[in-house]
C-alpha cells in the first residue's frame, strides 16, 4: 500500500492485517490481543487485492447478465416486428384491392358512359342519314318526272316550252347545288320578245336573265364538327397466296389464329401438324402433336391450346413444341376458344365446357351442342357456327343467348373471325361465300362469293393490320386480302 493507515485503538500502530472471520482490519497489537486464535487472517495488501478483484468480478457479472438479457430480448423484438410487418402487409393488400376495385369500377362506368354517348351519336347520325336519303329519293323522283316532261315537250307552245324548261332548270339547280344561286340563261328565237311580255297578266313579267334565289327545302345535314361516313359494304382485293412450305407439301388448313403481328399458327389436318408461319420473314415451322389436330385457341404469344384426336385438348409451347398439359374431356370434342383466361371447349353431348388453363372444370353451357366452330368476341360472348344446322348463335358465359340466326344462302357455316369494329365474319363452306353480321345480330350481308374466287373456304382471320386471311379451296390455299371500304357521306 502506498500510504499506511493507522489503527484507531492503538495510536501509532499501522494496519497490517485483515481478519476475514470478523471482517475487521487489524494492527499487530489488535491481532495479539483479540484475534490470536483467528485462523483466517491475511496481510492487508492481499485482502485489499481480493476485495478489488471481487468488485471487478461482480461488475463484470452484472454487465454480462445485462447483455445476456438484451440478447434474449432481441428475438422477441424481431418476432414482434415480423408480426407487425405481416399485419401491415395484410392491411396494405386489402387497401390495394379496395382501390383496384374502385379504379376498375370507375373505368367500367367510364366505358359504359362513353359507349352510351357514342351510341346516341350513332343513332342520331343514322336518323339524319335516313332523312337525307329520303330527301334525295324525292328529288330523284322529281327529276324523273321532269325528264318525262322534257321528252314530251314537242306538243307545247313556245311560251309553254320556255316556262317548262325554266321551271325544270331551276329545280335541277336547286337539287345539284343547294348552296349556290342558280342563274338561268336560255337563248332561242323569241327570247327577247318575251323579256317584257305583258299580255298574259297571269304570268307577269318574265326575265330569263334574272338570278333566282334558291328556297328549296334542304336535306338535314350533320353537325359541322362531325365527320361521319356510312359504310355500305367492305370490298376485299386479292393480294397474294401465301407460300407455306411444309415437309410433305400437303395442306388442309382447318384453323388459323394470329400469335403476333404477321405471325400466325395453323392446324394442318393432312400432315397431323400445327404450323407456325411468319409472314414478315416468310418462314415456316412445323410442330407435331399427334393425330387429328383441329381447333386452336391462343393463350398468349408463347402458348396455345389445340384439340387433338377425338377427346383431348393439348396445351403446347409454341417455341419448343413441347406439350405442357393434356386435358382428357371424356367426350367427343370439336371447337375451342378462350375467353378471359378461360378455355371454352365444345363437347358433343355435354355442350360447352368452361375450364381454367390448368384444365379444372369451372362451368358448362349444356344447351349449346353440335358440330361447332367457336370464336370469342371482345364483349366476352362466344359465337358458335353450327355446320349441320346452318345456324350462327351468340351466347354469353352464363348461357343466355344474345342472338341466333340463319340464312338460306349461308350453307355449312364454319370459320369465324371478328374485325376491330366488333362485326362478325363467317364463311359458308358449301355456299362458297363470306357473310358479315353485326355484333348484335340485327344486320347481315354477303361480302364475298365465288365471284371473288372463293371455292369451299374453311376458315378466315382478320389480322392485326386489318388484312384478311382465307383458307380457301378446301384448305389447300391460304390467301391474303386487302380491305377497301366503299362509303357515302
From TrEMBL:
<protein>
    <recommendedName>
        <fullName>B box-type domain-containing protein</fullName>
    </recommendedName>
</protein>
<feature type="domain" description="B box-type">
    <location>
        <begin position="2"/>
        <end position="46"/>
    </location>
</feature>
<keyword id="KW-0862">Zinc</keyword>
<dbReference type="InterPro" id="IPR011042">
    <property type="entry name" value="6-blade_b-propeller_TolB-like"/>
</dbReference>
<dbReference type="InterPro" id="IPR000315">
    <property type="entry name" value="Znf_B-box"/>
</dbReference>
<keyword id="KW-0479">Metal-binding</keyword>
<keyword id="KW-0863">Zinc-finger</keyword>
<dbReference type="GO" id="GO:0008270">
    <property type="term" value="F:zinc ion binding"/>
</dbReference>
